[in-house]
């Protein structure tokens, strides 16, 4: 996902403890998510953009902070640069499920160099996984040729799906991670849909282990 933030503005993965808003509000059927990256030792993976909760043309993350872009429906977890991308940072399934669809073959080129991608290629190389209870996760901007799964394949949390890449509408290597419930996006930090106002209570979808990172 393209970002208007030019400087490296990010927080340590996942930075959950300091940024979570929690309440006892009843959530939809619970999906528990592991971290969708397996960062090798020595490589720092960071959240650059969160889900946008501003109902208007502006952008606010779930804590009413500025780490979002207008209309952003997922979270962007990045690596520092092309060198780290070239080393191979695995993107992994965040929960058990069935691979719904994959797309590969889109080159890893920054839109700063190549311009916007053609229609249908905005998300770049992508894997979509269906989970029980109406949940779905999407992993986008993967490295060309790295997709390691196929439609219909059963996966567990931690199954390698591909590698962090630079494909599609992006200007930095990362995975764009989207969580959906019955077709609608949800913020994994609150369980709430985007665009309904920041700072509202919710229920974290991360596993305890992911929340501790």
Overview of the molecule:
The protein has a single domain (46-212), classed as Glucose Permease (Domain IIA). The chain contains three helices and eleven strands. The strands form two sheets. Strands 1, 2, 3, 5, 6, 7, 8, 10 and 11 form a nine-stranded antiparallel beta sheet that branches. The longest helix is centred in the middle third of the chain and has 6 residues, at 82-87. 7% of the residues lie in helices and 24% in strands. It is mainly beta and 213 residues long.
Concise overview:
This protein has 213 residues and is mostly beta strands. The protein has 3 helices and 11 strands; from the N terminus they run βββαββαββββββα. It has a single domain, classed as Glucose Permease (Domain IIA), CATH 2.70.70.
How many domains, as an integer? 1
> Main sheet?
9 strands, antiparallel
> Which CATH class?
Mainly Beta
Which oligomerization state do the chains in this entry correspond to?
Answer: single chain
Helix content class: under 10%
What is the succession of H and E elements? EEEHEEHEEEEEEH
Based on secondary structure, the structural category is mainly beta
Shape: globular
CATH topology: Glucose Permease (Domain IIA)
Please indicate the percent range of residues in DSSP E strands (runs of 2 or more): 15-25%
- CATH architectural arrangement: Distorted Sandwich
Which regions contain 5 or more consecutive residues with pLDDT less than 50?
A: 1-12, 20-26
Strands, total number: 11
How would you name the CATH homologous superfamily?
Answer: Glucose Permease (Domain IIA)
Helices, by number, come to: 3
Distance between the termini: 23 Å
Cα Rg? 16 Å
Mean pLDDT over all positions? 86
